[in-house]
Every structure is written in structure tokens, then in C-alpha cells.
Amino acid sequence: MRKSFLQVGKTRFAFITTCYNSKPTANSGISSSTMDSGSKDFSKSIPLFFLHGFPTTSALWSSVISELENDFPCVALDIPGFGDTTIPLDMERDIESNSEAIHRFASALSLETAHIVAHGSGCANALALALQRPGFVKSLFLINPQFGDNLPGLFMRSIKIIAKNNFSWNLAFKTKSIYFLLEKGLRKTMVRNELSDQIMQEFLRPLKNSPSARLRFQKFLNDFNPRLTSTLTGHLKKIKIPVTIVSGENDKISTSEWGSNFSKKFTNARHHIIENTGNVLPLESPLQLSDIILQSMDSVF
Fold it and tell me: Which backbone phi and psi does 201 adopt, to 5 degrees?
């Protein structure tokens, strides 16, 4: 899937999509965009809006989108601080700021409402968005969610430690050890090793090619404050929309037991477990995950 780009204010968003219906205008704040030909219209049905987590990009969702694009319009964003989305380095990249940036992007696409599908630490952005913009989020799908007491997790915490010091951060890239740590860490969280070299390189490509991407990633790691999610936990009952939580049976970061307990913090939540999988369900089991999304949509809507 080809990436598209959309300039909104000072941020250039990178994303993959199967649909687009807005035209850039002089007053929209959109300066340029490139779209796949034959794209679908958002207005015909409510789209699925995919948010990745650490340390991936929108490419995480490629196989899932391939399964779902005939049923729903789909759009997957490189969250600010990741991938090919470019932001001014002086902009905050905490959870709430990123959620607002995500909503600005959606508004620029004339996207009035969406079903949010989020993975890992991206679930923090999804939940903040649901609380900040309740009219925008139609339903939530939280895949291997990391929130509250299981965030940031050992993998993310180890990279955050390196990012705190400029010398250690630059040295990690100079020696290329950061790429080894990111790939090894991601593969270690999986049970089914379905992480292809092509997808892994797509995750790493921006960091390898762009010093500014490394600075943006470092700033995200330093700005990201997982303690905020503990504060938000007390407000989750305010989310009245349908919530579907999907866990990997053998996930060591966001265990199935944790997912079951987490589902009880919502007013209207269902919990699913996919057998023989770990922490990266969009790669390990895209077909089963897509089936759960479709079944949940059928039963609720």
C-alpha cells in the first residue's frame, strides 16, 4: 500500500488509505495531498481509523486493511513522532497533544466520525480521543492494549532510557544498535513470528534515512508520560460507545487476564482472546483479528 501525505498547519501527516473524498482548498489548511486512484468515499459508510503503537507505523495494519477494505473504508495514520509524519520539534508529543493532532488530521479529511482500531500504546491515544472527542469516536477496538499499569512495559521503557540522554541516543544510531534493539524487542513480544523483513524495514526506514525522524522519535519518547493514563483510568466509565478488547493468549505485556480485567472498567465492553498469539496481533493473526472486528460490527450495529 502506498503512503499518502497531507499538510495540516505545520504538520505533514503520512498515512495509508483506501478512500478519500475531500479536496484541498485555500481555506482548509491543507497544502498538498496524494491519493490512491479509485479511492472510496468516506461519506458512504463510517470508516475504520487505525492507530499503531510503539515502535511501529501505519504499515502495521497493511494485512488487516487488506482483509477489511471491501467492507469498510480504511485509513491508517503514522502517529506524530513515528514513521513519515513530520512535526515541528517544539510541539509537545504527549498523549493528549497527539490525540488532538489525530483529530485535526481527521477533520482535514472531513471525517466526522470513525470506528477507532488501536494497538498497544496507541490505545492510550484512542482512549484519550474518545474522552476528549466523544462525538467523533463511534466505537473502539483496543488490540493488545497498553494503558495504566501495563504502560510503558519493559520494551518501551528500555528505549525511553536511551532517549533521555543525547549522547547515548546518538551513539545507539551511530553503532546501529538501536535497530537491533527495536527489531529484537518487537520479535520477542510475538508468539507467531510473522514479522517479515519487509515490514520490519518499513518500520525502521524513516529512522535510518532521516536524522530529523530520529529527533522526532526521541522527543516522542521523552514527552510520552504513561502516568497520564492512570489518571484517565478513572474516567473510562464515561465512554458509552461499544468497546472491543482483543488479547493474545500468550501476550506477556498485555496479558489476556489483564485484558479481561481492563474490559470491566468500561460500561459496554467485550473481550476476545486469540489463541497461540502474543503482543502483535495485527501481524500475528490478521485474519482472525479482522473476523472479530467484522463480527463485532455486525452484532453491535
Answer: -65, -30
Q: Report the domain count for the chain.
A: 1
Domain at 209, CATH number: 3.40.50.1820
Query: For residue 109, what are the domain limits?
Result: 4-300
Give pLDDT tens digits for 70-128: 999 999 999 999 999 999 888 887 888 899 999 999 999 989 999 999 999 999 999 99
154 vs 181: CA distance, rounded Å: 12
CB neighbour burial string for 42-52, b if at least 16 within 10 angstroms, e if fewer: beeebbbbbbb
Cβ burial, residue 240 (10 Å; 0-12/13-18/19+): exposed
Cα–Cα distance, 277 to 173 (Å, whole number): 31
**pLDDT value at position 228?**
83
- Residue whose entry in the numeric block shows the C-alpha cell 484541498: 24
Q: Which tens digits make up the pLDDT trace of 60-75?
A: 999 999 999 999 999 9
